[in-house]
Amino acid sequence: MKLGNLIRAGVLCTLLMSIFLGIVSSTPAQAQGQAEDQAELRIATSYKLMTLDPHFANLNENTSLLSHIYERLVYQDEKLELKPGLATSWRPLSDTRWEFKLRENVRFHDGSEFTADDVGYTIERIRDVLKPPSGGFRSYVSGIKAISAPDPLTVVIQTNAPVPNLPLFFSSIFVMNRPSEGYQTTEDLNTGRSSIGTGPYRFESWSSGERLRLARNDSYWGDKSAWPTVSFRVVENPAARVAALSTGEVDVADAIPARDVASLKERGPRIANIGAARVNFVQFDVSRDTLPGVTDKSGKPIANPFKNPLVRRALAMATDRGVLVDKILAGYGTAAAQVFPNGLPGTSGNLTAGPPNYDEARSLLARAGFPDGFNLVLAGPAGRYPGDAESLQAIAQSWARIGVNAQPSAAPFSVFNSKRAAGEYAVWYGGTSGEAVDVILHALVASPDPERGTGALNFGKYQNAAFDAMLAKAEGIKEGPERNQALAEATELAMADQPIIPLYHFHHIVGFGPRIGSYVMHPRGWTTAMQTLPAGE
Amino acid sequence: MKARILSVLKKRPHGPVMTLSKLLLTTYILLAVAAPVIAPQNPYDPLQIYGWEASSPPGTTGSGGYLYLLGTDGLGRDIASTILYGLRISLVVSIISSAAAALIGLTAGVSAAWFGKWVDVAIMRLVDLQLSLPTILIALIAIVTLGPGVDRIILALIIAQWATYARIARSVALSEANKPYMDAARLMRLPTSRIIFRHLLPNSIAPALTLIPIEVGHAVALEATLSFLGLGVPIDKPSLGSAVANGFQYLLTGQYWISLFPGLALFGLIASINFVGEDVRRSLDPRSKSL
């Protein structure tokens, strides 16, 4: 009996060791073998592509992958500056008329020529034809009154009211090919038979939410891709993406968790990262008179303390963003003092996130009438953004140092969202992203006004007429340094009042294997083959 | 009854595993009771935690003057202190819930046996329904409906566990109810409550009581599972289960200590409760007395 056990244990040990050694020794060889005999670029992505309709929803999930097939009139480069795409130039003819000059000799994948009529078709399809739930792009074109084409390569767009950032809007819209008759429906496109764009890759095959295969467009007007074929595999689990990359099963994997970066590097793959054009923040309810969970130290409800800007500034001053960025995001984040990372257009160089100043914060609180602090419940989603639930606890630790007793409360995003909408929270953690600073300010900080479409994400109902006026003025200026300066000044005005506490801009992290020479990150967080340059050659 | 328990406890054989388990369990209980005194840090007090010391390896000395014997977690909590405080939650939750579940289950089972008819049908069908579902599922449903919090966990565990006691108590009470001393009690026209609580319940209780130690072990594991899934205790007051969950995401990054030590503590706790519980059960079980 004893002997039998020993033998069994021995066999088990050998077996386990051989499995372990087998994995270790076979991996690099396997990866190398694949590098030689296939030139396909394999990408594991977190973006779950659910439709082939490029106008269905304005989500990175769709736009990141479909940007291989379809192109836009205007591009946003890594600095979020506008660059020519299918349009080579654009200029305002008057306050309400814009002229776009289109690129010559551009052909769709079916061989037909790209003309002004296709731009008209694209706008009509989004504005007039698509019905909810596919309305993600309508707000960009709803202000367009008429489209005309003086010649096949010129489009003149007339708007109802002045839209100075119309070119920015066109940096979101994919141009489709006008079919022989009618309009393509989402169902038609999802069959995969008519995914025809002008992009650097042709559509090959797709299975919803799983895989997208693309082949190089050899008659592309721009620089031709180095990869003859590209396959995207949707891998939602971050650990599985990391595993696929470290075993050489894929060449590129996106949305790598910061905590896995160090061990991934040890195993060979390299990492690229960039501060995302987005912000995670704490938002206050500043409109109601009393708030759920906000009490004095003895537990008696108190009047809404967040109406007092001193309290908001004290809490911002007592927030240790260093811990959030260095510990929770493992360094793959940037401390935030405004809505976009410093340096992007429309940001202010005067706003920087410093270390916490507890003494100053405590005296601000005392001036606001809370020398002993108060109690609150800090709500937030769990698992929606990198570091969300952990941030709640780290912020609570910071605030405790000025006497504010924060009880962190994390819930799944859907639960959190519906509870926030139902007014169950007083102060909460949130996140948002957008094409430009003004888009975020427009939604997050401007006073809520359904008619003007402002304040859609201003759930705390913060109102500041001076800021609204400055933002409206900035939005009336055409793209350029003057507009950026006006936006920076508006941001400074709002942030002095602290309607939100910007916490951090987390980094997009992409890992890539030995077959990749470099990967050019984009702050919008897209994952594309065009950003991927092969090694060697 | 008490004398019997004591005498049986005394003459149980003491193997090395059993001695170790008893020693371990006693240590656990002492540690849990003394946690606020002996823990270097109160991991539930944000003022005592230093966020920038998060993920320190075991043996680091922190700025609070603590030696992080087992390291710190991703938010700077001392793992050793988290274990000590987590032990309190685990033990308190499981003991209270098992005791309450036993009380409710016994009363329900004995009532079903005594009253019969529709009371029996109603209670026992409910018990059948509940026992046909996995315990974790019932606990999950209960906690999702009730919301998070330590008191809600206790309630969820009671809901998940009372049925087991009810079924045993009913079968024992049914056989007891037909014994001559019960006839005597009925013929003396004693009040129903007196018959149930003074005669039927004490005599049906022994087999059901043997379940308690085992069920406490189950309750510890169940609480840990709920907390691991993020449905139990508040996130800033980790129990053993949520302490393991906190470190789970760091397992592949080399920061093994965040999950490993709470996991080991949990393993030791459940194992020792189960060993000791099994021993107590055997000594109390009337059938094993003949051995």
List keywords for this structure.
heterodimer, A: 537 residues, alpha+beta, D-Maltodextrin-Binding Protein, domain 2, Dipeptide-binding Protein, domain 1, Dipeptide-binding Protein, domain 3, 3 domains, 22 strands, 32% helix, B: 291 residues, mainly alpha, 71% helix, elongated
Write the layout of secondary structure elements.
The complex is a heterodimer of chains A (537) and B (291).
Chain A: H1 2-37, E1 41-45, H2 60-66, E2 74-76, E3 82-84, E4 87-94, E5 97-102, H3 116-129, H4 138-141, E6 144-151, E7 154-159, H5 166-170, H6 186-190, E8 201-207, E9 211-216, E10 229-234, H7 238-246, E11 252-253, H8 261-266, E12 270-275, E13 278-284, E14 290-295, E15 301-303, H9 309-317, H10 321-328, E16 333-335, H11 358-367, E17 375-382, H12 388-400, E18 405-412, H13 413-421, E19 427-433, H14 437-444, H15 465-475, H16 481-497, E20 500-512, E21 516-519, E22 532-534
Parallel strand pairs in A: 1-10, 1-11, 17-18, 17-19
Antiparallel strand pairs in A: 2-3, 4-5, 5-7, 6-7, 8-9, 9-10, 11-20, 12-20, 13-19, 13-20, 14-15, 16-20, 21-22
Helix pairs in contact in A: 9-11, 10-12, 15-16
Chain B: H1 2-11, H2 16-38, E1 60-61, E2 67-68, H3 79-115, H4 117-131, H5 135-146, H6 150-177, H7 180-187, H8 192-209, H9 211-228, H10 240-248, H11 257-284
Antiparallel strand pairs in B: 1-2
Helix pairs in contact in B: 2-3, 2-11, 3-4, 3-6, 3-8, 3-9, 3-11, 4-6, 5-6, 6-8, 6-9, 9-10, 9-11, 10-11
